[in-house]
Design a protein that fits this description.
Keywords: Membrane, Transmembrane, Transmembrane helix. By secondary structure, the protein is mainly alpha-helical. The protein has a domain at 33-74. Helix content is 53%, strand content 0%. The protein has helices at residues 15-46, 51-72. α1 packs antiparallel against α2. It is flat, with a radius of gyration of 25 Å.
């Protein structure tokens, strides 16, 4: 029943543990962004784009990737599919039998 259920909550970790976890999260995002930027830089250079344009596109891809991963971390988890059984009654989704036409 909410906060009155009597269950003990876990104590808040120390500040340095929380800071380390946040730093690791952001480090992972920056690494993914750097990889994406490097791939765009290499691909555009390979395609014959000038160095300045390739560098700008790679930097834009890196920044955009970091921002996208940070925004994606704010989304709620996707709920799993609802479970149904044969005893659920009318109106529930059921697997079609091979005889349905």
């Amino acid at each position: 029943m909410g906060r009155h259920d009597g269950a003990a909550t876990a104590p808040r970790p120390p500040w340095y543990v929380r800071a380390a976890r946040a730093a690791l999260r952001w480090l992972g995002r920056v690494v993914v962004g750097a990889l994406a930027g490097g791939m765009v830089l290499g691909a555009t250079l390979w395609a014959g784009t000038s160095w300045e344009s390739a560098r700008a596109l790679g930097a834009a891809a890196a920044v955009l990737t970091v921002v996208a991963t940070a925004l994606a971390a704010t989304l709620p988890l996707v709920p799993g599919p609802p479970t149904t059984t044969r005893d659920d009654g009318a109106g529930t989704r059921r697997d079609p039998s091979p005889d349905d036409r």
